[in-house]
Amino acid sequence: MLTLRKTLITAGCLMAVASFSHAGSDWLTGTPTEQLKTLAELQPGVGTVMIEYSHRFATMYYAAKGGNWGMADYQLKEMREIQEVGETTRPARAPMLKSFESSYLDTLAAAIKVKDWKKFNTTFHATLEGCNGCHTANGFGFIKYELPKSSPSPTSNKP
Ligand code: HEC
Fold first, then answer.
1. Ligand 1 atom index nearest CA of 100
2. For 27-37, what is each residue's pLDDT tens digit?
3. Which residues line ligand 1 at a C-beta cut-off of 6 Å?
4. How far out from the chain centre does Cα 65 lie?
């Protein structure tokens, strides 16, 4: 009985998934090239990337402060990953993003590697200035990043 009910539930779910995925792609029309173009236009630009970038930046800070260096290292790596998305979808911004990475993120990585909070903290604040420097340089001087009072992530900062 239980097995039968489970089977029915599974079948129902599969049907739901099937009809969803069908309805889900109905909007994608035109030739394959046109469809690719539509999909490409939906990829996140720098503004969307920055929301994740800044979330990870603050999460990294509080992880390092709490001594969870594994988490700090992970967040920094994910920052590099998401920045690549911005470099790809907005190639004009790529050179500045790349130079920011080598000037600041590499130094943060070095501090994380040796678990040096003092070095990390100093570099972090210099990096933050670099973030806002780039905003100003690109005509977005009104975007002033401020470190939140606590971690934006629900993950633990304990080592
Ligand atoms: C290469 C230059 C550059 C660097 C470096 C940079 N940003 Fe940005 N950031 C931008 C631009 C440009 C925008 C405006 C987005 C757009 O293009 O519409 C932006 C937007 C933002 C936003 C607003 C997102 C929103 O729409 O709500 C935040 C927050 C942000 N950046 C945080 C950061 C943080 C934190 C760092 C550093 C760790 C950083 N940025 C580094 C260029 C940069």
1. 5
2. 999 999 999 99
3. 46-47, 50-51, 53-54, 57, 93, 96-97, 100, 127, 131, 134-135, 138, 140, 143, 145
4. 20
